[in-house]
Amino acid sequence: MNSFSNLKYLICAALVFFFLIGCLKSNPNGKIEQGKKTILDPHSFAQTNSVLVKHLKLALEVNFSEQILKGWAEWIIGANTNDTLILDTRDLKISAVFLDNDSNLTPFSLGQKDSILGEALIIPIHKNTQKVKIVYQTSVQAAALQWLNPSQTKGKHLPFLYTQSQAILARSWIPCMDSPGIKFTYDAEIKVPANLMALMSAENDTALHSNGVYHFSMPYPIPSYLMALAVGNLQYKSLGKNCGVYSEPETIKEAAYEFADMEKMVDAASSLYGPYVWGKYDVVVMPPSFPFGGMENPRLTFATPTIITHDRSLVALIAHELAHSWSGNLVTNKIWDDFWLNEGFTVYFENRIMENLYGKEYADMHEIIGYGELKKALHDMGETNPNTALKQNLKGMDPDNAVNDIAYEKGRFFLLHIEKTVGRAKWDAFLKEYFAHYQFQSISTEDFLVFLNEKIICGNQELASKINAKAWIHEAGLPANFPTTNSKLLDEAKQTALTFSKGEPAISESTINWHTFQWLHFLRNLPKKLTATQLTNLDHYFHFTTSNNSEILCDWFQLVIQNNYKPAYPAMEKFLTTVGRRKFIQPLYTLMKTTGQTELALKIYKNAKPGYHQVSSHTIDQILVSE
Fold first, then answer.
1. How far apart are alpha carbons 423 and 221 in whole angstroms?
2. CA atoms of 226 and 256, how far apart (whole Å)
3. Is 321 annotated as catalytic?
4. Measured on CA atoms in the order 396, 400, 401, 406, is the torsion positive or negative?
């Protein structure tokens, strides 16, 4: 490039930069005006009404010593009625941009940094531009990337990397249109150290590559939050036709035992709501720092090791993530305000799978436990809180901060209510048609209601009144027509708790074969205030402190904290420093804070934080550090 060309390049870049920055500043929260149209997703800068991407080619090298990914992303443009491509980024170092097959650099600029949204990457393009290639690297602050040293893994010898892109963290490792309303296919080449295996939310190999280079293909369109990468010392075990499990070698045998019914789950789900369209269904057992129970990445569910209990009592989580292959991955919420379309459908579907495999008694217990968690969420948030409506307004908020049991459980019970109103056969037929009609699309709550009106209500005002969708979706709290379920097994557990609270022994031969749900119901129906003698007796007879079941441990440790039961504190501290699942650690830190044990909480957190994913540490920071 000669000096005159270089000057023209700089002038052009400056003009584009200042013009587009002005546009972005005048439209905060990513709502960029385009003529009379407005971008609908408040969590993305992308101009989705004028330029769309349809395919990603990704090439990255994983550098564990520097804790960065380095390479390039090439976007194939779909629709293009504008002269600017705007992508979401967060803490990315962009070094070059190229258009089509042109080897000359293209000017680009970054918008004003937003603490939640990151920065818009602004690239001038032509009306006939077909490809945009971005050369970049991530930063050590990349929120989606969790780099683990060997001591944080099961094997203790090799490092591990995994991503967590949901809700809006994909932009911290890939420049993209980071909105659930934008779907694309992708191919990737990932280079890793030769002694490690790489996996993605795509077609995966099951054997180690001696050269450390792995190729991936996802031929079905997915949103950015389902982009996933895991790199570590991993082995594979087939669990039947087109399904299996990956884990560190030290865990593979127990993981294969725990997930033995996975093929049955896939068959049960397919029989309910249509064929599983993604090809294979595999699960990878994550390190303990993984912040969620599971993440439904297509073809490759990430699952917490906390569900490995050696008795298969928590495998409903696998059914949940599998159900996402229809609700969420196949039919996706268009923006995060409609999150209940993903999770409410999935919790409902999960329980239908489990009922198919383990019977109605199991399903009834699951519903009642879910109702209890919903009531707790309503109590904590306030039943008149507008955020207890299914349809949310998350403008200006980090979507991760709005995750609670409203979308999951209120959403589930809304669908259960419709099922009981119209009959299961009619409802199942509707859902099968719903998934087929909207497959590979992103939809809004309003789209769902239109489809419900067309296929179920059909102008029947009496039926519409019985369903009362407005109250469920747009109003706070629980509607009067909330469905109820009974469980003889949980009634027994509750009665055992009440008997114990009156001073009688809780020992019963019937507890020998109790399910996890029964133990949780027992613990949750004990008095909040217990004496040291009562807690000692409970621990002596039922061995809660040494349980392998993280769900039981979490509920037990809440009683421990509330009653300052010191003998269990070392086990609680070990739990908090070896488990990073937000569902478990958040209530324990919260209780320590509210019971005047903040100093202890901070001490434990200081040791535990390096092993937490940023999603979890951000939540705990808000509890313990923020005022």
1. 33
2. 24
3. yes
4. positive
- Chain centre to alpha carbon of residue 585: 16
Residues 6+ apart with CB under 8 A from 59: 71, 72, 73, 188, 189, 190
Query: For residue 39, is it within any domain?
Result: yes
447, with CB counted inside 10 A (0-12, 13-18, 19+), is middle
pLDDT digits (tens, 9 = 90+) for 592-601: 999 999 999 9
Catalytic residue among 258, 321, 343, 355: 321
Q: Is 264 left (phi over 0), alpha (psi -120 to 50) or beta?
A: alpha
Q: Could you tell me how many residues make up the chain?
A: 627
Domain of 563, in residue numbers:
528-624
Residue 18 placed within a domain: yes
Per-residue tokens: 25: 């500043």
Report the amino acid identity of residue 567.
Answer: P
440 and 534: one domain?
no
> Which run of H or E residues covers position 431?
helix 424-437
Number of H helices, E strands in the chain: 20, 22
DSSP 114: B
Residues 6 or more apart from 261 whose CB is under 8 A from it? 312, 315, 357
* Cβ-Cβ contacts under 8 Å for 495 (sequence gap 6 or more): none
DSSP assignment of 522-535 equals: HHHTS-S---HHHH
- Final residue belonging to a domain, choices 233, 258, 282: 233
Query: Closest Cα partner for 74 from 47, 106, 45, 48?
Result: 106
> Torsion-angle region of residue 543: left (phi > 0), alpha (psi -120 to 50) or beta?
left
Q: What is the CATH number of the domain that holds 99?
A: 2.60.40.1730
- Nearest-CA neighbor of 337 among 28, 88, 29, 62? 29
pLDDT digits 0-9 by tens, 529-584? 999 999 999 999 999 999 999 999 999 999 999 999 999 999 999 999 999 999 99
Q: Tell me, yes or no, whether 347 and 479 share the same domain.
A: yes
User: What is the enclosing helix (H) or strand (E) of 94?
Assistant: strand 93-99
The total number of structural domains in the chain stands at 3
H or E element: which one contains 501? Answer: helix 488-501
**Predicted structure pTM score:** 0.90
At 393, list the tokens: 């307004």
pLDDT digits (tens, 9 = 90+) for 372-420: 999 999 999 999 999 999 999 999 999 998 889 999 999 999 999 999 9
CA-based nearest residue to 335, from 277, 378, 388, 397:
397
Alpha-carbon distance of 217 to 298, in angstroms, equals: 12
Average of per-residue pLDDT values in the chain: 92
Catalytic residue (one of 220, 358, 371, 408):
408
250 an active-site residue? no
**Cβ pair 101, 154 in contact under 8 A:** no
Residue with tokens 């971008």: 39
139 domain-assigned = yes
What DSSP string runs through 435-497?
HHHTTTEEE-HHHHHHHHIIIIITT-HHHHHHH-HHHHHHSSS--TT------HHHHHHHHHH
Nearest in space to 91 (alpha carbons), one of 116, 123, 122, 73? 116
**Are 453 and 601 part of one and the same domain?**
no
Residues 64 and 185 in one domain: yes
Q: What tokens appear for 600 in the block? A: 């202890």
